[in-house]
Amino acid sequence: MAKRNTKDRARRRTRPKKKEKMSKREKEVAMIIISFGLLIIAMIATYWIVEKNKKFEYAGLTWEKIRSGKVTFYRTNFTMIVNGKPKAIRLYLRSDPREEIDVNASIRLKRLTYISTDPHIENCENAIVALTELNLFLGVVGIKTRAAVTEPEESNRTGLPYITCENKTDYSIIVVVPGEKNEIVQAKKDCYEIKYTDCEALHAIEQFIVEIIKQWR
Questions:
Q1: What is the pTM of this model?
Q2: Which residues, in sequence order, are CB contacts of 191 under 8 Å at separation 6+?
Q3: Which of 4, 102, 134, 212 has the fewest CB atoms within 10 Å, measured from its CB?
């Protein structure tokens, strides 16, 4: 009987102790660590999604959405044949190139091209910026540009030539005027009209640049 009691006491001593429950403090620390880990994962996932959405494919080109101060740009790099040689070009637009407008034109510009504008276009936000972009882009691809206006009174006031699609010339003409909607039309063989509504001249002009890239590459 004594031996049996001794064995029973030995078994009780060798039994594993039950795992103690976590204290309230330990639970709080564990929750903080888990929450912090989930926060890090969420931040990484958000950053990855944002970075992925900055780049997109359009018109056979890779575009990147970037910010400079308060201004958003759409940047792309491509190569075009200029004067028989490949030329690397970097382009910055202020409007999303994917926001297409109606185009009914096969754009072929002569070495000399007049850009004739409605005199009220300067009242539209960023219109002058867009015209500057167009002039610079055409210069890069080998087109020499000159300014003109679409109204004779403005021609008399500024000294710029009065040019519309009614002119018979040996150069190309780009006319930028208000219209019922944003669109690009070929009024005559060497004359193209960029029409804009609600002062959206910036978008319409930049779409003309995008269309040149589509058709000339």
A1: 0.77
A2: 165, 167, 172, 173, 174, 175
A3: 4
